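Hi support team,

I submitted a single chain yesterday and got back a structure, but I'm not sure I'm reading the token output correctly. Could someone confirm the output below corresponds to the sequence I sent? I've pasted both exactly as they appear in my results page.

Thanks,
R.
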Amino acid sequence: MAIIKNVPIGTILVENGFISEAQLNEALQTQRASDGKMLGDVMLEMGLVSETQLAQALSIRLKVPFIDLSSRKISTEAVAKIPEEIARDKTVFAFEINHNRLMVATNDPVNFYIFEDLKVTTGMEIVPQISTKTMIEAAINKYYSSQAMDSTMNELENENNVEDELDLEKAESEGRIDNAPIVKLVNMMVETAFRTQCTDIHIEAFKDRTRIRFRIDGELVEQEMKIPPTFHNSIITRIKILAGMNIAEKRIPLDGRFGTRIDGVNLDMRVSTIPCVYGEKCVIRLLSTADDKARKITDLGMTQYNYEMFEQIIRCPNGVMLVTGPTGSGKSTTLYATLGELSKPNVNIVTVEDPVEKKIDGINQCQINAKAGMTFAAALRSILRQDPDIIMVGEIRDGETADIAIRAAITGHFVLSTLHTNDAAGTVVRLVDMGVAPYMVASSVVGIVAQRLVKLLCQECKETYVLETPEDLKLMNRTDPAEICRPHPGGCRHCHNTGYAGRTAIHEIIVSTPDIKELISSGATAEEIGAQATKNGTLLLRDNVTKMVLAGKTSMDELVKATYTV
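Hi R., thanks for writing in. Yes, this is the structure output for that exact sequence:
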């Protein structure tokens, strides 16, 4: 291996035009004030360069090739040459073997000592290639997890002394799980789910197998895990022990929760089991970054036009703001982001939730406990005696909660909540149906935000085509053929062969102007309220998603899924 010259990274970046001399001096000053941070890390924090620019600049100057691990075929034989602990510690990833030479991705190609250590560890000649730290860490998480999962599955398959059903039940009732592979399997399952950005894990029992499915970007994806049905009870028992549930009770639905830490992120998990024909079905909901700061509204996909309308609503000192949509449309995330914007040292914010999904610093959060009599309505009555400025109610489920929330708004509080309706205008009718008088709704509701989540097309493999079918053009309010994009069949490596990568929210916002209030008081229909809101400038969900389809961000399938009604 050729000896690499230890060239100052700042010089490399200036020579290749990535930053100016003035920016380098500014970064050097910041570095001196920091606690021995590397210059590259300082410049990344300052936003002067991106990770890829940093890696490419090094690649040009040092004549060491740049490798994009996300699109490269990885050899599992090469991965196995470097133990996971060393790969994580040194931030290196072996991806190919070429005639007894091990190709290794690194973000620090000038550190000659790392490669000498690897040469001793692997017994092979090391050929370093440059990649970004993020890419290397993602590859380590993905490939070492799958290898550990494979070895755990092999251990399970090789277990010959499977206890019969009676012994297994006895072991479960005593809380004794001797199956070490089962413990490993459950841990690996949660880790893999987190690293693939999964929101729910489904563990289902069938006659001849146990099926594991992950919900990724709103779709359930079956995992390639061949788990014999004899191990199903042990898996469920392990999860119940973690979640503090009654392992002896299998006849009724149970709920529990547990926390763990993966890759430095605190994970909060809700567990639900329900008895089925061949055994209990278990669903684990992953609530990542339980202690972290809530994301900002502008990070959640809200357009600038909609954000300006949204700002008008949250500036109100009192009133009710409702976020509506079906289950899993991101309502809670929007509420948390709104609380993040409203939270100030001089404001008292109290929330009532079932359950508390994210713990936010500086906000008083109350957990519902129906068994103890702590219902939404009871909690809301007590909160009104806690001198609140802003109240967040997790969900308006009945007329009593709706009535108290509306009265709280009329008496000078700002109330945020969610409701399950299909569009913004239908929300008013739902409140009236719940028993709230129309005049009360008119005087308290200051704004309604309806939202959906739509999947984004993979930018690496999407295909362009001309949309000509009259039915589809009618959905987009067009008569002329339009050039739009669709997912590539079978996708690519970047999107895990799905054709889609990530999701974003679309919004429909109604601001309660005097003419809207008048319509609500007079008992107008949802259609009449919607028509007036459109005149006032509200962009409907379909208008928002149509813009995204025409811009090539999402597909016609997603437009239909998010907004189609009979």
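A quick pointer for reading it: DSSP finds 22 helices and 18 strands in the chain. Let us know if anything else looks off.

Best,
Support desk
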